[in-house]
Amino acid sequence: MIIIGGFLGSIAYFIGFFADRIEILIFTHGLLYVIGFATIDGPTFYLIVQYFDRRRELANSVLVLSESFGRLVLPPLYRYLLDVYGLRGTMLIVSGLMLNVVALAGLLKPSSFFRTFSESNVVQIGET
Could you tell me if 93 and 10 are in contact, meaning their C-beta atoms sit under 8 angstroms apart? Predict the structure, then answer.
């Protein structure tokens, strides 16, 4: 789900790059971007429970802190990008930045269902 959310967020900004009317931006950022990042928040909090037995509260606090820190840092970054590259250039750059969510989600270890499924299909060398 996190990978899908990262793709939707990136696609929202990428389509916004080609937007020539405000209605398109309302659709991309009001619908695609929100749905994309709503699919990221839930699974990340679930993964905190799955990955951390000890110090789960600390891990949850770091997750919430990172979201708040991003909300603090991104507006000045957007302002800088808008001043230097304009609206279309900023949309394209932020689209590329959003693809980092996909790359980082690929580093997450699979859940126990996928581990069990993949281990059951492994054939040992020498087995016939």
Answer: no
pLDDT tens digit sequence for 2-17: 889 999 999 999 998 9
Q: What is the pTM of this model?
A: 0.74
Q: Give the count of domains, the chain.
A: 1
For residue range 68-111, list pLDDT tens digits in order: 898 899 999 999 999 999 999 999 999 999 999 899 888 877 65
Domain range spanning residue 97? 2-105
91 within domain boundaries = yes
